[in-house]
UniProtKB/TrEMBL annotation:
GO terms for molecular function: kinase activity. CDD domains: bac_FRK. Keywords: Kinase, Transferase. InterPro entries: PfkB_Carbo_kinase, PfkB_dom, Ribokinase-like. The keyword NADP does not apply. This is Carbohydrate kinase. Belongs to the carbohydrate kinase PfkB family. Residues 1-309 form the Carbohydrate kinase PfkB domain. It comes from the Bacteria. It comes from Maribacter algicola.
């Protein structure tokens, strides 16, 4: 089975307990582990795949808390780094109208330093670029781009999730698109939300958006559509794969569970070239990943709700 390296941020999400208030009046917060690449690493290891997290936390109690969670979930943290800079913190609340209030205190995630010793481990393995913060500068952005170059030269399977966060990129959308383009050009798998596919392609219509993204270079496109399932697209075919019916209570982490489950299944495949061209096999993989996403919505929190291998009948 191939290893999956997940590069990017691991941070604390402080979620306002008393929903219905904005951050200026919220008094109680719950401390949660956050960061899409870290969630994806946990999603893979909970399904008994091999995931390695590459990212940086502070050398402080929050950093220890975060790395402990990854280790409890059997993620390999040997390539994680600790910095003098404090762990990155995000504060989030949702008001009565569903509006998010968001404050971001960027810290140690941006301190990730490139480590050339990883390059040889990328050979014939998989690398997932899914950081929401990597394009925001700092050492992380430089490390991220250098790891991307290594993944290309080592024939790694490359997966990309742009993880667009409006809170972080308001009025800077063009810069975000420009930074994403090299990844879209060279990825085997691109995972997008509807909004991301539209933003990155500049096309409202999904057929046109997918065609544009394929022409740019990405081989397999998955557009996650919540309860409607997932649009799966290659240059040869395009179809929507339905999800299962669930009663959702919290959708946090559904997209990470979905892509983690796809990567775990791809990692088990011997012949990627045939897989990338097989409509039947890709559809089965997406169908199972839809189930992983759906199950994640049935509990509160992201990592806690990720399904196990048994739950997905592997
Ligand atoms: P995130 O906000 O975590 O980045 P996302 O927007 O990429 O996530 P979603 O579309 O919310 O991802 O969910 C990922 C997948 O999980 C969907 O493609 C779908 O298969 C499944 N899923 C999500 N919500 C539901 C739901 N309410 N019912 C059934 N399946 C769901």
């Amino acid at each position: 089975m191939k290893k999956v390296f997940c590069i990017g941020e691991l941070l604390i999400d402080f979620v306002a307990e008393n929903q219905g208030k904005n951050l200026s009046v919220a008094k109680e917060f719950t401390k949660k582990a956050g960061g899409a690449p870290a969630n994806v690493a946990c999603a893979i290891s909970k399904l008994e795949g091999k995931s390695i997290f590459v990212g940086c936390v502070g050398d402080d109690p929050f950093g220890n808390f975060l790395l402990n969670i990854l280790e409890e979930n059997n993620v390999d943290t040997s390539m994680a780094q600790k910095s003098e800079v404090f762990t990155t913190l995000a504060f989030v609340s949702i008001d009565d109208d569903g509006e998010r209030d968001f404050v971001f205190s960027r810290g140690a995630d941006k301190e990730l330093k490139y480590d050339s010793s990883l390059k040889k481990d990328f050979k014939n393995n998989m690398v997932h670029f899914g950081a929401a913060t990597a394009m925001l500068g700092g050492n992380l952005e430089e490390a991220y781009n250098r790891y991307f170059f290594d993944a290309l030269t080592q024939d790694s399977f490359i997966s990309f999730d742009p993880n667009y966060r409006e809170d972080l990129w308001k009025h800077k959308e063009e810069a975000f698109i420009k930074k994403c383009m090299p990844f879209i050009q060279k990825s085997h798998l691109g995972k997008f939300s509807l909004e991301e596919a539209q933003l990155l392609s500049g096309k409202k219509d999904m057929d046109e958006a997918c065609s544009f993204l394929h022409e740019t270079g990405v081989v397999i496109i998955v557009v996650t559509l919540g309860k409607e399932g997932t649009l799966l697209s290659t240059k040869q075919f395009r179809k929507t794969i339905p999800s299962i019916e669930v009663s959702p209570v919290d959708t946090t982490g559904a997209g990470d569970a979905f892509i983690g489950c796809m990567l775990k299944q791809i990692a088990e495949h011997d012949n990627l070239e045939t897989l990338l061209e097989s409509e039947t096999e890709l559809s089965q993989i997406v169908s199972k990943a839809n189930k992983a996403g759906a199950i994640t919505t049935t509990n509160f929190g992201a990592i806690e709700s990720l399904p196990t291998r048994k739950q997905l009948d592997f």
